[in-house]
Design goal:
The protein is of the alpha/beta class. The protein has helices spanning 19-36, 53-62, 66-83, 97-112, 163-176, 187-195, 225-230, 232-235, 246-251, 264-277, 309-315, 322-329, 342-372, 387-406, 410-431, 433-438, 442-463, 468-478, 514-522; strands at 4-8, 11-12, 42-49, 90-93, 116-126, 131-133, 152-161, 181-182, 200-201, 203-205, 214-215, 218-223, 256-260, 285-289, 292-294, 338-340, 375-376, 497-498. The protein contains 19 helices and 18 strands. Bound molecules: 5'-O-[(L-methionyl)-sulphamoyl]adenosine. The site of 5'-O-[(L-methionyl)-sulphamoyl]adenosine has 18 residues, from strand 2, helix 1, helix 7 and strand 13.
Length: 523
């Protein structure tokens, strides 16, 4: 694999980030970190979507300019991603000058090509979705089904994009590439939507929407937010209608766009059509994740149940985001909806990270110090039955995990890693190294410990994308080099000789305090 280019959706800045936004950035960061273990050239893009009527209205209601609102909130997104160790290469803002200029050129190119034309139109616009809705898609009361709000009746002369021209090519692409849309069960939804697809309005009159990029040569119109927003995936890496940058040539097409299921239509119909019109290759995969609810309820400002990602870290006094990352990433199988609750968070991370994984390493290292002064004994797998098989199983899990990641099955991959941890705990219980020591079977006792340490090296590499700080702490205590590529991991990670001293043993993850969860629940 020579490169991997991954993107997230860019978030609207009409509010602060919540754990739904965080879920996506965590999944993407985990995929990016995993593929960094498989390629030397990773590019991870995220950012904010800053134009459109929604931002214009929110700023007006707050009595500030749209740009002030964008600056204030874009910073909150950056701060949140920093707190969550989201290791992106670039943060694009659609108000960046470079981006705005390229979007104007893209629009102009499509006008010149005849794919964009002017047309008078009357339609129902939902500012929540930032798109025109088909009357047949409204609820019985005439509301947008996603935002439960009445759309505005808009009568304007707009530019239109010939979406219908690309319908057949997109249908063919989806059918010929069953892994284009992930999970594949969503492809049928898209194919149904494509059935009655029509040309779409791609500009708004400046009289109605002032906060947008001007159409070149027609400043009375501003470019539709979704052309503006979707183009970020190519403008960020230096696309230009005349001379694309070296980075663009290297990274495009994207390997995967990670997005929420609510914006799949824009990514699997509109975006491919714009790209086909620009004569550019299509992204390899579009991975639509599910939605996160809070205590099984949809997050909404009116319900007052919106949780900020950093507030979870504060509630549980977590210095590092690993536990939150792990919890979110494992909250739902690929593409399905997940849920957050304080109580469940506490139970899961304590059980998986503190008890099963952290404790296993801690106990093993402590026994190594206690019985062998921290010195790894000469290996002899024959001495302890099942020990060779366990290490083999752990090594085999690397391929299983890679395979899950090939299909963006992040929670499923984590489950495989935890099942190796569980097997290893069982191995320790079954072989009771403390009893072996008591019986002075020191060679056997030493082999049990070595087997566990060998497995833990592999586990630290596999858990690294989810819990980078915990993995680093594990690897440090195991003297294991976490920079190793997954394909280069062997079953010979632990060397004979001094490994650790008592004072260097530290728990990799401290249990989350249950009192804190109770306090938070009462609040
Ligand atoms: N600006 C557009 C995306 C443009 S991409 C070219 C947008 N912004 S958003 O702020 O509304 O959403 C950003 C991402 O967060 C989307 O992928 C969306 O699905 C995701 N989520 C927003 N709320 C969410 C949950 N409650 N749960 C999980 N993801 C959610 O759409």
């Amino acid at each position: 694999m020579d490169k991997f280019y991954i993107t997230t959706a860019i978030d609207y800045v009409n509010g602060a980030p919540h754990i739904g936004h965080a879920y996506e950035k965590i999944l993407t960061d985990i995929i990016a970190r995993h593929y960094s273990q498989r390629t030397n050239d990773m590019y991870f893009l995220t950012g904010t979507d800053e134009h459109g009527i929604k931002i214009q209205k929110t700023a007006a209601a707050k009595g500030i300019t749209p740009k002030e609102l964008c600056d204030e909130n874009a910073q909150k997104f950056k701060d949140a991603w920093k707190a969550l160790d989201i290791n992106y290469n670039k943060f694009i803002r659609t108000t960046d000058e470079e981006h705005e200029k390229t979007v104007q050129k893209i629009f102009k190119k499509l006008v010149e090509k005849g794919d964009i034309y002017k047309h008078s139109y009357e339609g129902l616009y939902c500012s929540g979705c930032e798109c025109f809705l088909n009357p047949k898609d409204l609820t019985e009361d005439g509301l947008c089904p996603d935002h439960m709000k009445k759309p505005d009746v808009v009568k304007e002369e707009n530019y239109f994009f010939k979406l219908s021209k690309y319908k057949d090519a997109i249908i063919k692409h989806i059918k010929d590439n069953p892994d284009f849309i992930v999970p594949s069960f969503r492809a049928n939804e898209v194919l149904n939507q494509l059935e009655d697809i029509q040309d779409i309005s791609v500009s708004r009159a400046k009289t109605n929407v002032q906060w947008g990029i001007d159409v070149l040569d027609d400043p009375e119109q501003s470019i539709y937010v979704w052309i503006d927003a979707l183009s970020n995936y190519i403008t960020a890496i230096g696309y230009d209608t005349e001379t694309p940058s070296e980075a663009f040539k290297k990274y495009w097409p994207a390997d995967v766009h990670v997005i929420g299921k609510d914006i799949l239509k824009f990514h699997s119909i509109y975006w491919p059509a714009f790209l086909l019109a620009l004569e550019l290759p299509l992204p390899k995969h579009i991975f639509a994740h599910g939605w996160i609810t809070i205590d099984e309820t949809k997050m909404s400002k009116s319900l007052g149940n919106v949780i900020s990602p950093t507030s979870v870290l504060e509630t549980f006094e977590l210095k590092e985001p690993d536990a939150f990352r792990y919890y979110m990433a494992t909250s739902a199988p690929c593409g399905r909806d997940g849920n957050y609750s304080d109580e469940d968070f506490k139970e899961k991370v304590n059980a998986h990270l503190a008890n099963s994984m952290g404790n296993l390493l801690n106990r093993t290292l402590s026994m190594l110090v206690k019985y062998f002064d921290g010195v790894v004994q000469p290996k002899n797998y024959e001495l302890v039955s099942g020990s060779k098989e366990l290490v083999k199983k752990a090594l085999g899990t690397v391929k299983i995990v890679e395979n899950h990641f090939n299909h963006f099955e992040i929670a499923e991959a984590a489950q495989e890693i935890m099942s190796v941890v569980d097997l290893t705990n069982k191995f320790v219980t079954d072989n009771a190294p403390w009893t072996l020591a008591k019986e002075e079977k020191m060679a056997e006792c030493g082999q049990v410990l070595t087997t566990v340490l060998e497995v833990m090296c592999i586990v630290s590499a596999l858990i690294y994308p989810y819990c980078p700080n915990i993995a680093q702490s594990m690897a440090k205590q195991l003297s294991f080099d976490l920079n190793v590529k997954l394909d280069d991991i062997t079953d010979e990670n632990i060397k004979e000789g001094k490994l650790i001293s008592k004072e260097d043993i530290t728990p990799v993850f401290l249990r989350v305090d249950s009192e804190l969860a109770d306090k938070s629940a009462k609040k």
